[in-house]
């Protein structure tokens, strides 16, 4: 599975690591992804999602059903 948030679509970012002498080398800033089991009330079951930590905070505010609809994610297929 790719390192991508299932609700927000966040992926890695290309960046530079800058040393003290200002030499720049390329690095990859990965997304902080966590496996999260979320109770889906409408489906009456647990859904296991790979989410970024920012998405987990937003999920607590909006709710699973609204957030999945906004992301275009079909919860029945999970």
From TrEMBL:
<dbReference type="GO" id="GO:0003735">
    <property type="term" value="F:structural constituent of ribosome"/>
</dbReference>
<keyword id="KW-0687">Ribonucleoprotein</keyword>
<dbReference type="GO" id="GO:0006412">
    <property type="term" value="P:translation"/>
</dbReference>
<dbReference type="InterPro" id="IPR037147">
    <property type="entry name" value="Ribosomal_bL28_sf"/>
</dbReference>
<protein>
    <recommendedName>
        <fullName>Large ribosomal subunit protein bL28</fullName>
    </recommendedName>
</protein>
<comment type="similarity">
    <text>Belongs to the bacterial ribosomal protein bL28 family.</text>
</comment>
<dbReference type="GO" id="GO:1990904">
    <property type="term" value="C:ribonucleoprotein complex"/>
</dbReference>
<keyword id="KW-0689">Ribosomal protein</keyword>
<dbReference type="InterPro" id="IPR001383">
    <property type="entry name" value="Ribosomal_bL28_bact-type"/>
</dbReference>
<dbReference type="GO" id="GO:0005840">
    <property type="term" value="C:ribosome"/>
</dbReference>
<dbReference type="Pfam" id="PF00830">
    <property type="entry name" value="Ribosomal_L28"/>
</dbReference>
<dbReference type="InterPro" id="IPR034704">
    <property type="entry name" value="Ribosomal_bL28/bL31-like_sf"/>
</dbReference>
<dbReference type="InterPro" id="IPR026569">
    <property type="entry name" value="Ribosomal_bL28"/>
</dbReference>
